């Protein structure tokens, strides 16, 4: 049997990044930056006020108290955005707003709450010290510093930072395009009535959603029956970077995926894993294809273990794995000898504990939907008692 690690690297080696693109920031959410990003300018770009109030020379208001206010003439008004503010002469104050440039000559800001707020002659009821409430140029970012490294996922704060640095675009790895194709003559579209022996199709939306959650683009085709011609024509009609099928890969008489592709560039193997033993991967018609087992839990666990890290790697992400932690089991678990088992679990992060949820069998979608993690049990471990520590893949990060 093939090991989990071997199949992971076979799948990872199949996928290739698309050519880099220069993307407007608004279209880069969730993608990976392709390059280290060096700040073209400093942030803040100029010394500016952190408070609405008055710019002063601190020494001028050193004696101010509630009982003995200091009064200064207001020589200028500096709203945020004013670009022609005059210098401050000692013995005067400038009314200033948050974000406005501190005038040359001033060394502190007094918040409006410590004054009477006047625009003619202002009374100060408290003192200040040099530097108070001034945000210094370069205090956040200095021009020339690397602010984001290649492979970083561009989320809201990262895109905000790039915009603050005056960068309208960013070089990114484009999302991979993935065709999700379910197979099975028993499948019926949700919303349509079932006859005995039929089931509603569920892997399509589940895998397409997992692809989208990973930041790639999913094209979810109507599923195909266990019919080689229909299957091949669905495959050939796609212009994608990866095809992801489910079903038809085990040992039965109507395994449309295995029967059709095993002579056409796809290698099928048993992987020492549960769920998710029957797997296939290869190149068909020049396009990478990964064939997942049809049992719904097997399909999604296989996606997590083999496809998601490969997709993230080909989309340039530095971080390709789910966050892993170690937690204490609150109940014992058993696992088959020789297989890496991934049980569904509920991880209580604040308590540092985890328990398996639902049976290990691979058709229990309900328990998959109720879980927030996978428990990873190594091949050579057949039982673990309550209190043992176990490796956990958190699925909700
Ligand atoms: N004799 C053997 N039988 C089986 C073996 C084996 O080694 N020898 N392996 C078992 C394991 S493990 C798995 S996993 C499954 C994988 O089977 P296939 O990939 O061929 O998938 P199917 O037979 O098409 O379907 C399995 C199961 O999943 C349901 N299914 C399939 N597609 C969907 C879908 N899109 N939405 C919802 N449910 C789906 C299907 O109805 C079956 O119940 O094989 C075992 N058998
Ligand atoms: O490998 Mo199957 O995935 O155990 O149910």
UniProtKB/TrEMBL annotation:
<dbReference type="InterPro" id="IPR005110">
    <property type="entry name" value="MoeA_linker/N"/>
</dbReference>
<dbReference type="GO" id="GO:0005829">
    <property type="term" value="C:cytosol"/>
</dbReference>
<dbReference type="InterPro" id="IPR005111">
    <property type="entry name" value="MoeA_C_domain_IV"/>
</dbReference>
<dbReference type="InterPro" id="IPR036688">
    <property type="entry name" value="MoeA_C_domain_IV_sf"/>
</dbReference>
<dbReference type="InterPro" id="IPR036425">
    <property type="entry name" value="MoaB/Mog-like_dom_sf"/>
</dbReference>
<dbReference type="Pfam" id="PF00994">
    <property type="entry name" value="MoCF_biosynth"/>
</dbReference>
<keyword id="KW-0460">Magnesium</keyword>
<dbReference type="Pfam" id="PF03453">
    <property type="entry name" value="MoeA_N"/>
</dbReference>
<dbReference type="InterPro" id="IPR001453">
    <property type="entry name" value="MoaB/Mog_dom"/>
</dbReference>
<comment type="function">
    <text>Catalyzes the insertion of molybdate into adenylated molybdopterin with the concomitant release of AMP.</text>
</comment>
<dbReference type="Pfam" id="PF03454">
    <property type="entry name" value="MoeA_C"/>
</dbReference>
<keyword id="KW-0479">Metal-binding</keyword>
<protein>
    <recommendedName>
        <fullName>Molybdopterin molybdenumtransferase</fullName>
        <ecNumber>2.10.1.1</ecNumber>
    </recommendedName>
</protein>
<keyword id="KW-0501">Molybdenum cofactor biosynthesis</keyword>
<keyword id="KW-0500">Molybdenum</keyword>
<dbReference type="InterPro" id="IPR036135">
    <property type="entry name" value="MoeA_linker/N_sf"/>
</dbReference>
<dbReference type="GO" id="GO:0061599">
    <property type="term" value="F:molybdopterin molybdotransferase activity"/>
</dbReference>
<comment type="similarity">
    <text>Belongs to the MoeA family.</text>
</comment>
<comment type="pathway">
    <text>Cofactor biosynthesis; molybdopterin biosynthesis.</text>
</comment>
<dbReference type="GO" id="GO:0006777">
    <property type="term" value="P:Mo-molybdopterin cofactor biosynthetic process"/>
</dbReference>
<dbReference type="GO" id="GO:0046872">
    <property type="term" value="F:metal ion binding"/>
</dbReference>
<dbReference type="InterPro" id="IPR038987">
    <property type="entry name" value="MoeA-like"/>
</dbReference>
<keyword id="KW-0808">Transferase</keyword>
<feature type="domain" description="MoaB/Mog">
    <location>
        <begin position="179"/>
        <end position="313"/>
    </location>
</feature>
